[in-house]
Amino acid sequence: MSLAIKAQAPVYGGYVIARDNGIIFIRGAIPDEIVDVAISEKKRDYSIGVVTNIIEPSPYRIFPPCPVFGICGGCHLQFISYEKQILMKEDILLDSLRRIGGIETSLSPALTGNDYHYRHRAQFKVSPQGKVGFYKEGTREVVAIEKCPLMTTEINLLLDRLSAPVGMLRGIKEIHVSYGDTSVALIKTRTFTEDMENMLIGIFSGIAFENGESIGKDYIKLDLNGLQYTITAWSFFQSNWNLNRKIVELLISELQPLEGMRILDLYAGAGNFSLPIAVHASHVVAVEENLHAIEDGQRNAGLNNIKNCKFIKSSAEKYKTGDKFDTLILDPPRSGLSNEVMRKVIDLSPERICYISCNPATLARDIKKLKEKYDINSIRMVDFFPNTYHVEAVAFLSLR
């Protein structure tokens, strides 16, 4: 059964909300469109529906360029013009801040970049038959792809070479590709043959495995606003590298003056924020629990002759904060700050906090707690993942 309904406000997860004898979360609609919706799932308090026909289309509706859009589970918003995607994500961020955090605020201008060909990192899945692609929405079925419009041209060329020897990759589960000055791949497999090795080392500069072993060069190099930044296949780095460089620039600008300041960077990774800030600050402590990222960060400090950035292997929860810091940088996972880390932040009470978020709900929850002692200087949406439903943000706070 289909319902003709008017789509209303965007919500996190790639849905637009509507009301018709209850709340309906619609996939495939744009706010203010009138669409036919088929209900795919009924819950106690809401329903989930899928657009089956567009009755009155939005002027922002466009034709998605990817031939497997709607089948592959990677993208959700390719049918919406990029300018509208930005506005929708800002609405979602504002709604989360208002509804969860009780925060009424305006946003600073969004930080954006290219809407396609921005990803320097890909997590390709491999089917039992050896075909390379991504999972179909909500399943473990691999949708084979020839190229992905979100990836850099170089990664798509690597994908083409991976896909050529049909069946050669049978037995491999995933191939995580990272591209900078060269390319490395993290291979997830239980079986690895000499033929696989010969093929892959002919495509990539290095290949790495989950057990920490590698063949060839196991890291890539990227330019981080004039610094040399290396990263191995085992470490996380921001795949939208051009936008990452913009946010690093923003942090350094917003956190001025940095001269003479002591900075604590929790969830520091390989020093993406720590190292550029250390160039301007007195002392930086970078806390990270991933050993590979610590090793990458120490290598990066050495490559750039940065001696005032100390890397400490620890989780944010277990890190013992004995020193006083002027500024705190937080870049937590989607779950946001644990209660233990939040207590640590409140006890530290640095003059300034920069919070980089990948989940508007946990950002709103955490800022609600912090605003008892802190004023919000600015919040803005950062569109690290165009054409997907992900909403990132950066907030700057100062001690009241």
Residue fraction in strands: 25-35%
What's the average pLDDT? 95
Shape: globular
* Sequence of strands across the biggest β-sheet: 9-8-7-10-11-12-13
Number of strands: 22
CATH class of the largest domain: Alpha Beta
H/E element order: EEEEEEHEEEHEEHEEEEHEHEHEEHEHEE
Q: How would you sum up the major sheet? A: 7 strands, mixed
**What is the helix fraction of residues, given as a range?**
10-25%
Q: CATH superfamily membership of the largest domain, which one?
A: Vaccinia Virus protein VP39
Quaternary structure annotation: single chain
C-alpha termini separation: 55 Å
State the CATH architecture of the largest domain: 3-Layer(aba) Sandwich
Number of helices: 8
Number of domains: 3
**Uncertain residue segments:** none
Work out the radius of gyration.
22 Å
Structural class: alpha/beta
CATH topology of the largest domain: Rossmann fold
